[in-house]
Specification:
The complex is a heterodimer of chains A (246) and B (368).
Chain A (H helix, E strand, L loop, with lengths): L4 E12 L2 E12 L3 E6 L5 H8 L7 E6 L2 E2 L4 H7 E4 L11 H11 L4 H15 L14 H12 L6 E5 L7 H16 L3 E6 L2 H4 L4 E6 L2 E6 L1 H7 L5 H9 L6
Parallel strand pairs in A: 3-8, 3-9, 6-7, 7-8
Antiparallel strand pairs in A: 1-2, 1-4, 4-5, 9-10
Helix pairs in contact in A: 3-4, 5-6
Chain B lengths: L1 H16 L1 H17 L11 E7 L4 H11 L4 E3 L9 H7 L4 E5 L3 H8 L1 E9 L3 H22 L8 E9 L7 H31 L1 H6 L5 H30 L8 H25 L3 H18 L12 H7 L3 H13 L9 H26 L1
Parallel strand pairs in B: 1-2, 1-3, 4-5
Antiparallel strand pairs in B: 3-4
The chains are: A alpha/beta (246), B alpha/beta (368).
């Protein structure tokens, strides 16, 4: 493993019959980086992410996550990552603390540690009084924030966030991104997929996926320059629909 | 193990929070036991019997012909000694033995009344009382022909002796039946719903991205239901014992072990269902139509299997509850040991293995 490299992928593919969901993608992510993984619906983002998380076996290509091989060491990878799914990650019929104790427990953390850590984390968010609240009675934005807290309760090297801000209001989205920055400052690598192009601007670097391939890779500034655009929206449209004039 | 425990604890939270379901699960066996107390009558057809003819007279042969001609019975093993009858009951080869004692003809002709003895396996009380009534009716019709013009009329007394369940208690039937239904319900249906719920919510994906292996995830989800089903079955057993005087004549550890085996079989079915669908609704429908109905209707719980039309009899062989009912009735009512149903036990083991392997295969296909 190279110094400072958190995820390294070369020519990674996933085929379903003739359909190439992911087609020879190559990129790397540095430690502590916020890496945006962008693309239209069905471009292969989720498939690629699932391969990195050890949920799906690749068809061909190579890759390491947190220094572990994605073919042979998926168990090791799983111990070192946090994952927040596109769908809901919390159990509605459990309280906030019970959810935390459950997830933390899966990673072998002690009850006492989880309780202390959760209290600290939620205090920062300003709702440490909600520890005993049933998740079902929390508003969506809070649930998402708590899901994020949950995804890195075990101090993973990398957190994978699959469209974490879907359906959340702009204020909560900004709060959410503040949490992401804070995690990155602490040395955690953040790998995030999103639809929102304004969010792409918050990332250190981004990759743009079109039809299973990466068509653009770089910092937001670099991409805007490369595609002669003033904002990420334009970059995205130029990439996704190359034949249309903007 | 600590991880596993954290997981099991979470499953218990799910079960406890959904207290309405829990109430139904615990209340249902109680209600069912009380409801099924009513006898359900039905026809009998081609029941295996033995004719023990110790008299070997014209009359005994005539009665035998009459019984054979009725289509309700078919003669099984040849028995000469009444002492042997019970051993054939145990093996399940016959349900009834009609004994014509020596001197029957003599007594009938000289004194005008003969005595027949009928020994019936009453572990299934509905069938037993039907058998008794049918034999009475056949003998009566023979007597009517015999008496034509005779005065004073001759008389044959049919003395029924019921083995295993002398008081013809329905509870002997519905306690084992309810246990099998409850186990299917909790182990198979609730498990399949609980696993598909995680898939539907998307939490399954998150769980699979943790260091827990898929096998661990499924096992952890299944353990609480295993305990719940076992607890429920024991409650029904105790209710049967204390309220309806249903005994456990055989070995209790053996009974508990066989119940555990059937729970595992049901769990395997539940896991299999959850491996072929990711919708709670579909899982519920498959469980109800594919498991609950056959368990209630085709297992021999309510309708005796031997009285069903042939196609249904064939289908009943793939209903795990049918085999479990044979085992549990054997232990509880007939006091049989493992020697009498090792085959049934192997069949249940086979079912379990089959569905576990199938589920694992399904799962692998999806992951790759």
């Amino acid at each position: 493993m190279k110094e400072n490299i958190s995820i390294e992928v070369s020519n990674l593919s996933k085929h379903y019959g003739k359909f190439k969901a992911v087609d020879e993608i190559t990129f790397d992510v540095k430690k502590g980086e916020i890496f945006g993984f962008l693309g239209a619906n069905g471009a292969g983002k989720s498939t690629a992410m699932k391969m990195l998380c050890g949920l799906l076996g690749p068809t061909s290509g190579e890759g390491t996550v947190a220094g572990f091989d994605i073919y042979k060491q998926s168990e090791q990878i799983k111990k070192n990552i946090g994952y927040m799914s596109q769908k809901f990650s919390l159990y509605n019929d459990l309280t906030v603390l019970e959810n935390m104790i459950f997830y933390g427990g899966i990673y072998g953390l002690s009850r006492k540690y989880i309780k202390e850590k959760t209290t600290t984390l939620l205090k920062e968010l300003g709702f440490d009084d909600k520890l005993g609240t049933m998740v079902s009675s929390l508003p969506l934005g809070w649930k998402q924030k708590i899901s994020f807290t949950l995804a890195h309760i075990h101090n993973p090297a990398i957190v994978f966030l699959d469209e974490p801000t879907g359906g959340v209001d702009p204020v909560t989205r900004r709060d959410f991104w503040e949490m992401i920055y804070k995690a990155a400052e602490g040395g955690t690598t953040v790998f995030v997929t999103t639809h929102y192009m304004d969010e792409a601007e918050y990332c250190d670097r981004i990759s743009m996926m079109v039809d299973g391939q990466i068509h653009g890779l770089g910092s937001p500034a670099e991409l805007k320059k490369q595609f002669e655009s003033t904002n990420m929206d334009e970059v995205f449209i130029k990439l996704a629909r190359p034949n249309e004039k903007v | 193990m600590k991880r596993f425990n954290a997981f099991v604890l979470k499953e218990f939270y799910h079960i406890m929070r959904d207290w309405q379901t829990l109430l139904i699960l615990i209340g249902m066996p109680v209600a069912q036991i009380l409801l099924f107390g009513f006898a359900i009558s039905n026809e009998i057809r081609e029941v295996s019997i033995s004719f023990v003819d110790q008299d070997n007279s014209r009359y005994s042969r005539e009665i035998r012909q009459k019984i054979d001609a009725s289509n309700y019975f078919k003669e099984g093993v040849e028995i000469y000694d009444t002492q042997e009858v019970e051993s054939y009951f145990r093996k399940g080869e016959i349900k009834m033995a009609i004994v014509v004692p020596e001197g029957f003809a003599e007594q009938l002709v000289n004194e005008g009344n003969g005595q027949l003895q009928v020994i019936i396996d009453a572990s299934d009380p509905n069938t037993a009382s039907l058998l008794s009534n049918y034999i009475q009716a056949i003998v009566q019709s023979y007597l009517d022909e015999f008496n034509r013009g005779a005065k004073p009329p001759f008389f044959i007394e049919v003395r029924s002796e019921l083995v295993y369940n002398p008081e013809l208690k329905g509870a002997y039937l519905f306690v084992p039946g309810t246990i099998s239904v409850i186990m299917m319900l909790i182990s198979a249906m609730m498990t399949s719903i609980s696993i598909t719920r995680e898939k539907e919510l998307g939490t399954m994906e998150v769980l699979l991205a943790t260091p827990m292996s898929p096998v661990q995830v499924v096992l952890a989800k299944v353990v609480p239901y295993l305990l719940l089903a076992f607890f429920n079955a024991v409650v029904v057993l105790l209710m049967g014992y204390f309220i309806f005087d249903v005994p456990v004549n055989g070995s209790v550890p053996l009974l508990l072990a066989e119940m555990l085996l059937f729970i595992v079989t049901s769990l395997a079915l539940g896991i299999f269902i959850s491996s072929i669908t990711s919708s709670q609704q579909v899982a519920l429908m498959i469980s109800l139509m594919g498991l609950m109905l056959p368990t209630i209707l085709l297992s021999g719980f309510i309708f005796p299997v031997e009285n069903m039309p042939l196609p249904l009899q064939v289908i009943s062989n793939i209903v795990p509850a049918k085999w479990f009912l044979l085992i549990i009735k054997g232990i509880m009512i007939k006091g049989q040991g493992i020697a009498f149903f090792w085959k049934e036990t192997l069949i249940l083991l086979g079912f379990t293995l089959f569905f576990v392997v199938l589920s694992i295969k399904k799962f692998k296909i999806r992951l790759s």
